[in-house]
Amino acid sequence: MWYANSNLVVAISFILFFGILYYVGVHRKLGAALDARSERIRADLDQARRLREEAQKTFAEFERKRLEVEGQASEIIEHAKLEAERAAERAKLDIKEAVDRRLRSADEQIAMAEASAIAEVRNRAVQVAVAAAADVMKKRMPDKKADVLVGESIEAVGKRLN
Question: Which segments does the entry list as coiled coil (predicted)?
């Protein structure tokens, strides 16, 4: 009996099963499904490759811009340092000039005060000398002659000292 051998029954069943699958066209559907899947995978890979290239380009552009901005920032920093040094030098010079001006002004004020004090002392000395001379003359001379001489002497001394 042909069905007594189980290997033969399994082999015939296997062949019949695959024959029915072939007749129904499962192999075409399976092939089409696999082809569609491989196309989707290929499209996904192509898209991933494009996205990767785009990302690399974008990264390279950002890296270039970053380096450019860093360069500009370092230039700005150097420029700011130079400007700060110049401003510090200008400030030092301005302060030195202001101190010099104040010293000159103080020297001028001292000289003016000194000249004023000397003039005041001279004027006071002249007044004292004139008053003393007038007093001495009044005591030694007669009144009329003394008045005339005192007036003339005061005028003469005033002209010589001023």
Answer: 38-116
